[in-house]
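Need residues for this backbone.
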C-alpha cells in the first residue's frame, strides 16, 4: 500500500515503500552508511524480514526526470523492558538517510513528522533509535537513555578472584546448540535490565547466520560460549602481519554466577593478546578481577536514545524506587504533547494525571530530558546541575533522583 502526502516543498513527494523501491532504498542507504551495493540477496532478505514496507517512509524528488529517491527512514516494531517490570512496544527508528544532494532542506524533519503521526495514531508510548551523531535528534524530543563502556583486557593477564569452578559450567557450542538455547536465555536476560530489547526470530536469523559477507574484516566467525544461565560470543581478528586480537560480540548473563563463569573463560582465552568488549556501564567485571585496572575503559558511548510519545502512559507504566509527589511540567516543542502532570508514586506504582490549571509545577524539563532520565541512565540531579531541569527545592530533586533510580543501568543490548 502506498500513501502519498504532499510536502511543503512541491517537488518532493512523500510516500510509503513498495517492493519496487528496494533497489533505490539500498542504493540511497549505501551512500549514507558506506554499505555494500548491491546487497547480497540473503542480507537484503534479512533486512526486509524485520520491517514492513508500510513502515518505511520515502521521499522522491519528482522535479527531476529520474525522480530519484532522496530520503529514507523506517521503523522496526520492537519491545523494550521498562524499569521494575513490564515490557512496552517501541518504534525503533532506523536507516534514516537523506541524499547529500538534498540535505538541509527539511527532508528529515518531513519524514519524522510523518513517522511521529503514525506512531501517535497507533498509540506508541515510546520511540527509540541508535544515533549516528549526537546533535541531530534532541530537537525531536529524543534523549540518550542507555550507555555502554568499551573496554580492553589482556587475556591471561587479568586474573579473576576466586578459584576456577571444579566442574566446567561453560562450554563451547556450535550454532545449532546456540540457536536452540540462546533466544530463551536472551529473553530471560531482557527481564533483568531496563531498556533491553526483545529479539524476535526475524532478529535472531541474521545474528545466527553470521554471514561471512557481513563480518568485519579480517574477522573469524563467531565463537560461542554457553552456560545454563547465559552465553557469550566473540570473534578473533588476524591481520596480514599475523597480529591477533579478540572482540567480544555479546555477553548476556541472567545470574551473577553465569557472568563470572563466562568472563572467567573470556579473560583466559589462549594466545589472544588483547580482547575488547562493549559492556553496560555498571557491569561488575572490574570488581571480579584481582586488579581492577586490568580492565581499561577505552570509551563511553550512548547506546540507545529514547523519545517518550505519551507522557502520562510512560510515567504510569514504569516502577519507581521511592515514593514521589511532584507536579512535572514538560515541554515538547516538536509535537506539542507536553503539559503539566501530577505524579504520585506509592509502593513502586505511580498515578499520573494532567494537573489542575491552578497547580504550580515543582519540576520543569524538556521531553528529551524526561526521556533521558526515564530508564534510569542519567540522574535528574545531573540535568539540574547542567541547568536543563529545574526544581522548586533540593528536597524535590532528591526525591526525583531516588524515585527514578533503577537497580541496573539501562542497556538495550541490540544495535538497530
Ligand atoms: C536513527 C538513524 O538512522 S541515525 C542515522 C542518521 N543518518 C545519517 O547520519 C546519514 C547521513 N546524514 C544524513 O543523511 C542527513 O544529513 C540527515 C538525515 C542527518 C539530516 O537530513 P536533512 O534532511 O539534511 O535534515 P533536515 O534539513 O530535515 O534538518 C532537520 C533539523 O536537523 C538539523 N540537522 C540535520 N542534520 C544535522 C546534523 N548532522 N547535525 C546536527 N543537526 C542536524 C538541521 O539543522 C535541522 O534543524 P532545525 O529544523 O531545528 O533548524
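Answer:
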Amino acid at each position: 500500500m502506498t500513501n502519498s502526502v504532499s510536502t511543503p516543498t512541491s517537488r518532493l513527494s512523500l510516500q510509503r515503500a513498495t517492493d519496487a523501491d528496494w533497489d533505490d532504498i539500498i542504493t540511497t542507504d549505501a551512500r549514507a552508511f558506506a554499505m555494500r551495493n548491491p546487497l547480497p540477496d540473503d542480507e537484503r532478505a534479512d533486512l526486509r524480514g524485520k520491517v514492513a514496507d508500510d513502515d518505511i517512509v520515502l521521499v522522491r524528488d519528482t522535479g527531476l526526470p529520474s525522480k530519484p529517491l532522496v530520503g529514507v527512514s523506517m521503523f522496526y516494531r520492537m519491545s523494550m523492558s521498562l524499569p521494575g517490570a513490564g515490557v512496552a512496544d517501541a518504534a525503533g527508528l532506523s536507516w534514516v538517510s537523506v541524499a547529500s544532494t538534498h540535505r538541509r532542506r527539511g527532508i528529515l524533519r518531513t519524514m519524522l513528522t510523518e513517522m511521529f503521526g503514525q506512531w501517535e495514531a497507533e498509540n506508541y508510548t515510546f520511540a527509540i533509535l541508535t544515533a549516528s551523531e549526537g546533535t541531530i535528534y534532541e530537537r525531536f524530543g529524543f534523549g540518550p537513555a542507555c550507555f555502554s563502556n568499551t573496554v580492553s583486557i589482556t587475556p591471561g593477564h587479568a586474573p579473576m578472584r576466586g578459584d576456577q569452578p571444579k566442574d566446567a559450567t561453560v562450554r563451547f557450542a556450535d550454532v545449532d546448540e546456540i540457536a536452540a538455547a540462546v533466544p530463551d536465555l536472551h529473553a530471560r536476560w531482557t527481564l533483568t535490565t531496563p531498556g533491553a530489547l526483545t529479539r524476535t526470530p526475524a532478529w535472531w536469523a541474521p545474528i545466527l547466520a553470521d554471514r561471512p559477507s557481513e563480518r568485519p574484516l579480517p574477522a573469524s566467525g563467531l565463537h560461542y560460549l554457553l552456560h545454563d544461565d547465559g552465553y557469550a560470543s566473540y570473534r578473533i581478528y588476524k591481520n596480514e602481519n599475523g597480529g591477533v586480537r579478540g572482540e567480544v560480540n555479546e555477553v548476556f548473563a541472567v545470574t551473577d554466577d553465569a557472568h563470572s563463569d563466562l568472563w572467567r573463560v573470556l579473560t583466559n582465552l589462549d594466545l589472544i593478546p588483547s580482547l575488547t568488549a562493549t559492556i553496560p556501564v555498571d557491569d561488575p567485571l572490574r570488581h571480579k578481577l584481582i586488579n581492577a585496572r586490568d580492565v581499561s575503559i577505552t570509551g563511553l558511548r550512548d547506546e540507545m536514545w529514547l523519545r517518550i510519545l505519551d507522557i502520562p502512559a510512560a510515567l504510569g507504566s514504569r516502577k519507581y524506587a521511592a515514593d514521589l509527589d511532584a507536579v512535572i511540567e514538560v515541554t515538547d516543542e516538536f509535537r506539542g504533547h507536553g503539559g503539566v502532570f501530577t505524579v504520585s508514586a506509592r509502593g513502586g506504582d505511580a498515578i499520573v494525571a494532567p494537573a489542575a490549571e491552578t497547580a504550580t509545577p515543582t519540576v520543569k524539563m524538556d521531553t528529551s530530558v524526561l526521556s533521558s532520565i526515564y530508564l534510569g541512565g542519567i540522574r535528574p540531579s545531573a540535568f539540574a546541575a547542567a541547568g536543563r531541569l529545574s526544581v522548586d527545592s533540593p528536597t524535590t530533586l532528591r526525591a526525583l533522583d531516588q524515585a527514578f533510580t533503577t537497580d541496573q543501568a539501562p542497556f538495550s543490548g541490540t544495535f538497530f
